[in-house]
Amino acid sequence: xxxxxTIDTNFKRIENILTFTKGAKLIIATDSNSRSTAWHDKTTNxxxxxxxDFVASNQLHILNEERTITTFQSNxxxxxxxxxxxxxxxxxxxxxxxxxxxxxxxxxxxNQI
Length: 113
Description:
Largest sheet: 3 strands, antiparallel
Helix content: 25-40%
CATH architecture: 4-Layer Sandwich
Strand content: 15-25%
Order of helices and strands: HEHEEEEHEE
């Protein structure tokens, strides 16, 4: 999700993807810049509440599971702002979700399913 765009613009982008892929299995991996205890972050912010509502209203599912490491780690802190989202058709195919301990060239960790 574009950090410089409004949340509504980002949601519209996802809605366009949902329309384009209607009927297909879909996974969305995103740096959501949103925080919510629903995806095992320490706190919930305004954007997180909006993301919770958006996911529920579009019959999507957050795949993130509670782990000892977070999806985002920097000198400024850590959080679970990176989300893996699936639609109903894909959900049955997901066996496991985890945060990889593998080094990345980013402050974001690799998520694996």
